[in-house]
Each structure stands twice: as C-alpha cells, then as structure tokens.
C-alpha cells in the first residue's frame, strides 16, 4: 500500500511538469501580452515604455528561457509577482480569493449532498410512482433554470423586496469589528444566496446520479437476500443498498476537488464575490501569465491529489479494490 | 400567528448582527428639498472593478485613477470648463521662448502625516516617473523635461529643450508623491501602492481586497476639508446588481447603462423620488477608421462616400438610445478647442452613390454590390468582441453601406488579439474603435505621419503634410487662443481628409441618491467638485463604527 502511494506521488512530478509546459506554451500562443494591453491605445504612452515593460517582465527573452526562469522560481515555491499594475505576489492574490471560493463550493457541495441523496434514494425506491415523477420534473426544471436568472430573482425577492439578505458581496462594512459569532453570522448571511444558487444545478445532476445507481443496486441479489432475511425495509435500503450505491460517488467527489477552487465568473460577477473565477478570467484576458500559471499549477496539483484521494478512499471503502492495490 | 413565526425565526437566525446596521442604511428617509451644507456623512459608490495601484502613474486602469484622483493632488488642475487652473501651484509662468515652466507652490500645505509639502516632493515625483526602472507607461512625456531646478522650497522649474505646449497639461496629471516616505522605497513594489498618503481631499482608511475601498476626508486638504466625511467604493462588477443595491439603498451612486437610464428610471416613480440621474458628455468618441494604405480607401472619394452613407442619427438612437452627441472634430464639444463652424458629413445616400460612381465603382452585374475592374467594393470591419455597442454600430453601418452598394463583413476579435494582431500589424480594412479625449488638444501621436511604426497610434496611416504642420505648430504655441486657432484648423483638415468617420460621442451617465447635494454637471462632468458635495445633516446615515 505504501509502495503504491509513493509510486503514485512519484509519477505526479513528470505529469505536473508536462501540464505546466503545455499550459505555458498554450498561454503564450495567444496573441498579445500584458504590455500591449497596459499601453494599448494610450497616446500618452509610447513604444519606449512598452519595450521597458517587456524587459521588466522578461518578455523579451525566448519562450524556453522564460519557462526556465519561471520553473526555477516555482521550484522554491515562489510563484512570482502579478504582471498587473498592483505587482503583488501571485500567492497573495490567490490566497485572498481561495478561501471565499472554497467556502462557497464546499458549502454548496454539502447542500447538494444533503438534498440530492434523499431525493435520489426516494425516487429510486419509489420508482415510477407519482412522487418519483414529480421529483423528476422538478429536478429537470431546476437543471434547466439559468443560474444567473435565478440569482437575480432571489436577489430581487430577498435582497430588495423583503430586505432579509444582503444583495451582493461577501461581508458587511463592519465585518472586522464583529466578534467571532458576529463574523460567522455576517458571512453566513452573505453566503446564503450564492450557495443556494450554485447548489441548484448540482442537486439536479447529483440526485439523478444517485437514483440510477440506487436502481441498479436494488436489483442485486444481496438486496434480495437481505429482504429475504426479513430485515426491515429501512435497513435494507439505507444499510445495504445505499452503501454500495454510494461507492461510485467517492470517485465523483474526488473529481470535484479541483472544481472546488475553480469558481465561476458569471456567478461571482453577479454576486460581486471576489473569487477565483474572476481572478482567473481577468488574468487570462490581461495576459497576466504569473497569475494564470499559479492557478493552473495549483489546480493541477489538486486534481492529481483529488484523484489519488479518491482511489485511496475507494480502497478504504471496498475490500476488493484494496486487495487489488496491495498486490499491484 | 403560528404561520408567521417560522420565517421570522429563520430570518433572525440568518441575519445575525448586521441587521441593525443595514436597516439603518435601508431606512434612510426620503430627502427633503432643503438642507444646509454640513460636514459628515458617507457617500457609497459602486464601481465595476477594483483599483490596482494607488500611485496614479503606475496604474493604467480607470478604477485606480478614480480612487487615486481623490487621494493625490497635482500642481495644476482642470476647472469645470476644462481650463487649467491653480492647484498645488498657486501660480505658474511660461518663459518667452516656451522652454521654461516655473511653478510657484502653495505655502503651508501639509501631508496628512504633518510633513510639509515642498518643491523637493515635486522634484522627487518627476525623478521617479522618468526613472527607466519605474514600470510606468507614462514616463515618456516627462522625459521631455531636460532639467529641473528647485531654487527654494516653494519654487519648481522645469526646462525643456523644445517648446512643448502640452507640458502644462502633463503637470496637471502628475500626482505629487511624498518624498519623505518614498525616498528609500522601490516604487515598483512598495506597499505605498496599497497604503498611500497624498495631498488630495481624501485619504485611504481601509481596503478590503476584492470588496471595497474606504476613504476618509483629509483634514489637512489644502482647499479645506471636504464636506462629505467618507467615500466608499464597493466593487460590484455587474450593472444589474449595482442597480439592485441602489434600489435597496445600500449604495448612493452608480453609472447606469443606457437601458436602465432611459427605460427603467423614468418608469419607476418611487426611484425617481429618491434617485437623481445625470447625463453629460463623456470624454471619448467612437469612430470608423480606414486603413488608408489599402484599396479602396486610398481613394478619398470612397471615404467621403462612406461618411455620407452612414446615418449617424440612427446609430446614436440604436446604439446609445440617443444618449450621445454628434461630433465632427476630435475634441470635446463645449470646450475652446471644438470649432463652432464645422460642417459635418450629412446623411445623404444619393450623394454617396454619386461619389462612388464618380470614383468608378458601378454595379454592372446587378447584384447590388458595386465593382471596378472586376473587383467588388467589399471590405471587413473589425472590432472588439466585448463591446456590445460597437457590434451594434457595425451591424447598422453594414446595412446602410449595403444600400449604396458596398458589401461589408463584420469580424469580432478578443481585445488583446485585436490590438496585437490587427491594429499593431496594420492588418485590417476598417475598424470601429474609440479614442479618449484628453483636456489638452495635442494629438501628435495619433495623426502625425511619423507615428506609423507597428504599435504606434497613427495606425490608420494618415499622411497629410498640412496635418503634420499643424500638429507640429500646436506643440510650440502656448497661448490658448492661438492654440485654439491651430486646432480648429486641424479639425477642419482632418474632416476634409476623412481618415476616420466620427460616429458619436456617448454621454456619461450617473444615478445618485438625492440626499447628496451640490452636484452641478459642467463640461468637465460632475466629479470636478466632489469636495463641495455635501449631505444635509438630517440625511446623514447613522455611520457604522469602524
């Protein structure tokens, strides 16, 4: 098992290196760089200024030299400074935004699980009943509603008309004056709408997934055996069937780890949330290479770790897999 | 009773501690019509983007200059009519030969930390902006200064090798930095960029990254403490969200879209009672520019025919809902640089057709598109994909030009690609773009024939000896009246040569809570006198303690 883990971790290095080379190359294939943008169509800045800036950012070096310079810095965990005019360290910029995005995504993941699991199970157990059908319709409707539209609707209702919740932002002006619970309450209140909206489509997809897995499992022989033993229906469904139906979910959760840091541009823009989506989108448009690379590298590492974790969790949950890993 | 209880309980649970503070904000009374000027209160402004660097010449984005402009001050400034006037320099003089500018600085001015402002601060700022190590796009215009002198603490002299008339305006945009704080700092990486101290009406109080910026009135401001005690900028990228926040009473000021301005506000009686809207001429214009190196634009008759074929009234209505003005010169109407007696190209499709026929373009095969020597009269208009207004403009132009026998295709390109692949490489037929108008009329870098290298700004490729002569003369003449004559002449010459077709100059739009008083739109916009805006005492909200 330990050997397996070491092997996997070892293999991550060349994979990561490959990912960075490709990302670096693709990003620099896009025409233009930060200096064309910073000085673009500004008659008060000249060619000379642009050359100076290119020099300052090492953009006048050949691509492989730029990559080497970047790699050398990253090897000591220095992701460099943003090219945008704030010149701040990439890690600081990411560090400012990551907690927000993580909080929203983890919260919405929990909401998704909390709602989708029972919905999926009920639909499966009562397959083709009126309840199942109505749940199906509701779920597909939810899936079809555009997130930005729902967001605006909820903002108008709860933010403007009723005045119960803040319309946008992640904390109030007096946030830093509040005590621990006050801060938590303030954050919670600001996060309600974003979390609900971002969980909405996920609930639909996830509950369908649970339903189909559950349907498959219910037909298995061991469920029949459990029933034949005279176990209560609850026990059969929740102890025996659900456990097995949830196995593939582990993989799904593992794969959603990188998604946790991704963030969404549209949704963050609407709610005025300074998250990773906005940061990444603007960095790409601005050709802010250090920030783009920083996010890509962190994303790649998380994806690889997420995969590894999923595999390990799978092994932990399923003895058959565990035996397979040990022998490999 | 039982039915109403749960939501209320949930509501209390959700709202936590902020409810009181917010209800204080939301519950602001409908403003009365009177109210004397008073100090205090807070103005909350919605901005679409976060400032990046509060040293103004280090940042190119408008968010940074909006905030930085309140924190720092300059030697000269523009008044409401966009005329140069005294600021940190109480008076100034230009030598007879135009090569020496002398600024007599105001005495007794202090930075908020108590340190006195002297000519050394000006000298330090100049040295910093021209330092090749400083990562600024704006250094070049200050490198024209060959030598500076600071004969005493309150005099600053700049020497130029050549007379340079726009020099005064460059000193009106250079924010003076405190030498005593920055002398040993690296300007590219200093913390000062996010924690500045300046001579402007407001000082930075707190910056909540990605969320908001809070400024506080500078008691030491040389023109007297501004009335409004605090200005806060909340970063809300989406205009609709900004509008909802305005509606909920959480912000006081935003820039609405033309649709909100023209369609939503007039319909909402409740909003109009609380919110005042302002429209005033902005500082930019949109144009259709030709690549003069390419056929058919080498023929002036074709360019003029196109100018006649475009219906500007329709464009302004369709693109900006009428919230724009027609212009025929590259200056802001209402300022001294804009000539009164200029005749624009009128919408006249018949005239356009005549001119095209005269130029040899005829529709021989009857497919509606003119041709000449077997080549169809067709070209491509490129514009950036993130600008909806330009897309609509391109589509409307396409239709009008089709009516006189010109076939247009429209291509939308991402901004960085647009600039680096098409504009800088001169690889385009025609573009729709905009120029900002600076208060100084000099446009040497845009129109002079020497400014055509890749990446320079005369990318349309205008080569007109008369335009060159006027641009050069404009750089040498300081006297505003004489300068105005030169630039009037330049405008007429440009219109004649028709390297671009002026489409429209859009209005800037603002929606501001009526409790904020003393806002007077002028040619300079509305924010030229923000330190004189005030909130009558009864309308000042309960301030959140920070």
From TrEMBL, chain A:
Residues of the ABC transmembrane type-1 domain: 98-310
Entry-linked InterPro entries: BPD_transp_1_N, MetI-like, MetI-like_sf
Cell membrane as UniProt keyword: yes
Entry's transmembrane regions: 9-30, 102-125, 137-158, 191-210, 245-271, 291-317
Pfam families with a match to the protein in the record: BPD_transp_1, BPD_transp_1_N
Keyword tags: Cell membrane, Membrane, Transmembrane, Transmembrane helix, Transport
Family: Belongs to the binding-protein-dependent transport system permease family.
Protein's name according to its UniProt entry: ABC transporter permease
UniProt organism field: Thiohalorhabdus methylotrophus
TrEMBL record, chain B:
Keywords: Signal
Coiled coil: none
Keyword Amino-acid biosynthesis belongs to the record: no
Entry superkingdom: Bacteria
Pfam families: SBP_bac_5 (PF00496)
Domain Solute-binding protein family: 84-450
Keyword check for Transmembrane helix: no
InterPro entries hit by this protein: Peptide/Ni-bd, SBP_5, SBP_5_dom
Similarity remark: Belongs to the bacterial solute-binding protein 5 family.
UniProt name for this protein: Peptide-binding protein
Source taxonomy: Bacteria, Pseudomonadati, Pseudomonadota, Gammaproteobacteria, Thiohalorhabdales
């Amino acid at each position: 098992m330990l050997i397996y883990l070491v092997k996997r971790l070892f293999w991550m290095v060349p994979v990561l290196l490959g990912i960075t080379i490709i990302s670096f190359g693709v990003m620099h294939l896009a025409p233009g760089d930060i200096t064309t943008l910073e000085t673009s169509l500004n008659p008060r800045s000249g060619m000379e200024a642009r050359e100076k800036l290119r020099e300052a950012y090492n953009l006048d070096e050949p691509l492989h030299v730029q990559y080497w310079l970047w790699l050398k810095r990253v090897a000591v965990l220095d992701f460099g400074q943003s090219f945008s005019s704030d010149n701040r360290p990439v890690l600081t910029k990411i560090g400012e935004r990551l907690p927000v995005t993580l909080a929203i995504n983890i919260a919405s993941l929990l909401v998704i699980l909390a709602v989708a699991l029972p919905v999926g199970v009920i639909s499966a157990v009562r397959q083709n009943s009126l309840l199942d059908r109505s749940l199906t319709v509701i779920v597909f409707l939810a899936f079809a509603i555009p997130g930005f539209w729902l967001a605006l609707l909820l903002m108008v209702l709860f933010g403007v008309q009723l005045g119960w919740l803040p319309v946008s932002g992640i904390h109030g002006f007096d946030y830093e004056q509040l005590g621990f619970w006050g801060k938590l309450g303030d954050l919670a209140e600001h996060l309600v709408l974003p979390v609900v909206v971002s969980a909405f489509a996920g609930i639909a997809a996830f509950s369908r997934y649970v339903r189909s897995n559950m349907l498959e499992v219910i037909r298995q022989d061991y469920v029949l055996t459990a029933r034949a033993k005279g176990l209560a229906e609850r026990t059969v469904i929740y102890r025996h069937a659900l456990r097995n139906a949830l196995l593939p979910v582990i993989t799904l959760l593992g794969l959603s780890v990188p998604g946790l840091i991704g963030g969404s541009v549209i949704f963050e823009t609407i709610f005025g949330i300074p998250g990773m989506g906005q940061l990444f989108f603007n960095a790409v448009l601005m050709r802010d290479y250090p920030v783009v690379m920083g996010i890509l590298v962190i994303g790649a590492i998380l994806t690889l770790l997420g995969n590894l974790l999923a595999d390990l969790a799978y092994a932990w949950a399923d003895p058959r897999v565990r035996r397979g890993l040990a022998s490999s | 009773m039982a039915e109403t209880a749960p939501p209320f309980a949930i509501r209390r649970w959700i709202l936590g501690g902020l409810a009181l503070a917010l209800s204080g904000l939301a519950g602001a009374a409908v403003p009365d019509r009177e109210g004397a000027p008073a100090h205090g209160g807070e103005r909350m402004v919605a901005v679409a983007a976060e400032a990046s660097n509060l040293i103004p010449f280090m940042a190119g984005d408008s968010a940074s200059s909006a905030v930085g402009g309140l924190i720092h001050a300059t030697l000269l400034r523009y008044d409401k009519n966009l005329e140069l006037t005294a600021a940190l320099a109480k008076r100034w003089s230009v030598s007879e030969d135009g090569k020496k500018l002398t600024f007599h600085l105001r005495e007794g001015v202090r930075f908020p930390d108590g340190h006195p402002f002297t000519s050394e601060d000006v000298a330090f700022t100049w040295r910093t902006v021209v330092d090749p190590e400083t990562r600024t796009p704006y250094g070049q215009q200050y490198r024209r200064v060959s030598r500076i002198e600071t004969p005493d603490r309150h005099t600053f002299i700049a020497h130029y090798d050549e007379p340079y008339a726009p020099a005064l305006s460059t000193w009106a945009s250079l924010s003076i930095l405190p030498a005593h704080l920055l002398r040993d700092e690296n300007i590219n990486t200093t913390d000062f960029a996010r924690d500045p101290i300046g001579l402007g009406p407001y000082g930075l109080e707190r910056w909540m990254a990605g969320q908001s910026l809070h400024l506080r009135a500078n008691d030491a401001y040389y023109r007297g403490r501004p009335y409004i005690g605090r200005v806060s900028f909340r970063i809300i990228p989406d205009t609709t969200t900004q509008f909802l926040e305005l509606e909920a009473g959480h912000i006081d000021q935003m820039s609405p879209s033309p649709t909100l301005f023209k369609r939503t506000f007039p319909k909402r009686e409740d909003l109009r009672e609380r919110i005042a809207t302002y429209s005033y001429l902005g500082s930019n214009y949109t144009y259709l520019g030709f690549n003069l190196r390419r056929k058919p634009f080498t023929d002036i008759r074709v360019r003029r025919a196109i100018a006649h074929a475009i219906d500007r009234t329709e464009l302004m209505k369709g693109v900006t809902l009428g919230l724009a003005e027609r212009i025929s010169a590259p200056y802001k109407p209402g300022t001294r640089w804009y000539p009164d007696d200029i005749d624009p190209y009128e919408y006249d499709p018949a005239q356009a057709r005549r001119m095209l026929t005269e130029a040899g373009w005829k529709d021989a095969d009857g497919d509606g598109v003119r041709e000449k020597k077997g080549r169809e009269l067709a070209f491509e208009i490129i514009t950036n994909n993130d600008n909806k207004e330009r897309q609509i403009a391109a589509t409307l132009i396409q239709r009008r030009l089709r009516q006189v026998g010109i076939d247009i295709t429209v291509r939308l390109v991402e901004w960085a690609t647009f600039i680096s692949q098409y504009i800088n490489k001169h690889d385009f037929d025609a573009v729709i773009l905009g120029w900002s108008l600076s208060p100084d009329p000099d446009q040497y870098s845009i129109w002079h024939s020497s400014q055509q290298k890749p990446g320079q700004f005369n990318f349309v490729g205008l080569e007109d000896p008369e335009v060159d002569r006027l641009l050069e003369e404009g750089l040498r003449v300081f006297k505003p009246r004489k300068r105005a004559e030169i630039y009037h002449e330049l405008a007429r010459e440009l219109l004649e040569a028709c390297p671009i077709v002026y489409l429209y100059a859009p209005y800037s739009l603002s929606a501001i809570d009526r409790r904020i008083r003393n806002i007077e739109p002028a040619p300079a916009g509305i924010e030229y006198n923000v330190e004189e805006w005030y909130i009558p005492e009864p309308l000042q909200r309960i301030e959140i303690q920070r």
